[in-house]
Design goal:
Blueprint lengths: L22 E2 L5 E2 L7 E8 H8 L6 H4 L4 E9 L18 H5 L8 H10 L8 H14 L11 E3 H11 L8 E6 L2 E9 L9 H5 L6 E3 L4
Length: 217
């Protein structure tokens, strides 16, 4: 059986911080807390599923390399619904220097720019602070060892693997999405200070199939 080839995202085992304290950036600096929404959703996309649907010829940078999870985005979310495409004093375009520094997380400049325009502009943060928060959120999650061999796996087993690996996460704060009975994304709910939290609406949108396949990277 092939072991999942995960994109490296360093985990964090710190206990929950006090509400509304600044986020800790990987450099040790603190980041301002976002405004205008209730919490974040960190979305991790299973790259082999995306490539099988969208780029079987492996023309894109993402699909030419063997990746497991890649970062889809960090989305400001409300208890019901979510904001998108908000007004911002920052430019819509993400500078190449900033974007390419995120290639260990995101697979392309196109996705980075889209995430800023649709989601980052609704965070109440500057472009620099938003992407620094994105990196801090990615660092918050430890990816569990799992098996990708194309065989059916239960949704509960996939969620429980993340819950066991991440202290403070519960099954009510994570959702596995699917398409064509294949894993699509793992969505994890975080407070504005990047602590794990439950999120009823996101959890309800988890895959309805009892089991799905995880294509190998």
């Amino acid at each position: 059986m092939a072991v999942l080839a995960f994109l490296t995202l360093a985990g964090c085992s710190d206990q929950a911080a006090k509400t509304d304290t600044p986020n800790a950036a990987p450099t040790g600096q603190t980041l301002p807390v976002g405004t205008g929404f209730d919490f974040y959703v960190l979305s991790l996309s299973w790259s082999p599923s995306w490539c099988a649907r969208n780029d079987q010829a492996k023309r894109s940078r993402q699909c030419r390399t063997e990746k497991g999870f890649v970062l889809h985005g960090l989305w400001p979310q409300n208890e019901r619904g979510y904001p998108e495409y908000c007004k911002s004093t920052d430019l819509e375009r993400v500078p190449e220097e900033l974007g390419t520094a995120l290639f260990d997380l995101f697979p392309s400049m196109g996705l980075i720019g889209h995430q800023w325009r649709k989601h980052g502009t609704c965070s109440g943060l500057s472009q620099q602070d938003y992407f620094a928060t994105v990196r801090a959120a990615a660092d918050r999650v430890t990816l569990p060892p799992m098996v990708a061999n194309g065989s059916p796996q239960s949704i509960d087993a996939l969620e429980n693997a993340f819950v066991r690996t991440n202290t403070g996460m519960t099954g009510r704060g994570i959702a596995v999405t699917c398409e064509r009975r294949q894993i699509e994304e793992i969505r994890i709910c975080l407070t504005k200070t990047l602590q794990f939290r439950d999120c009823a609406e996101v959890d309800r949108r988890s895959c309805k199939s009892s089991s799905i396949t995880v294509p190998p990277a």
